[in-house]
Specification:
The protein is an alpha+beta fold and about 150 residues long. Strand 1 and strand 2 form a beta hairpin. The protein starts with a strand and ends in a 13-residue tail after the last strand. The longest helix is centred in the middle third of the chain and has 15 residues. The protein has three helices and seven strands, in the order E-E-E-E-E-H-E-H-H-E. About 35% of the residues are buried. It is globular, with a radius of gyration of 14 Å. The mean pLDDT is about 90.
Length: about 150
């Protein structure tokens, strides 16, 4: 059984995911490949899937149990959809990436409409009660997950 973590960051609102499956720990989020602030608005610029460990910026998170097969399929579908996507704030951004990851991993909350990452984390906690592994507790659970 794997884990999908959806997190929000402090400072500039940002959402992303940590995936743990089959001994792998992977950080994923979607960001603008922006050269100016205007590149983040609809019709802006190419986005990029970011794989940076964002542990130091986390404000809140929820970790949910997910079958490894569903997690890998959800990951692959989401990455294929966002690999060369255009970034557009409120249309194709970090929140839509996290929502699509949740939906593609067959969890509840993939259609939630919040634009605020911290609110979305709480929505996921409330709609996935039977699958919660951890919610806003420290030390972070991924600190004990094996990394390859």
């Amino acid at each position: 059984m794997g884990h999908l973590v959806v997190f929000s960051e402090s400072g500039v609102p940002h959402s992303g995911c940590v995936l743990q499956y089959g001994g792998t720990v992977e950080w994923l989020s979607f960001m603008p490949r922006a050269t100016s602030l205007f590149d983040t608005f609809p019709g802006g610029n190419y986005g990029m899937v970011d794989i940076t460990d964002r542990d130091d910026a986390i404000a809140s998170y929820v970790s949910m149990w997910v079958n490894d097969d569903d997690l890998v399929k959800g990951r692959n579908t989401t990455l294929a959809d966002y690999y060369s996507a255009t970034y557009g704030l409120f249309i194709n951004d970090c929140m839509t990436f996290s929502r699509d990851m949740v939906k593609n991993c067959k969890l509840s909350g993939g259609n939630a409409t919040s634009f605020f990452p911290g609110v979305y984390v709480t929505q996921l906690y409330l709609t996935n009660q039977g699958r919660i592994q951890s919610y806003n507790s420290k030390p972070y659970p991924w600190k004990n997950w094996k990394k390859n």
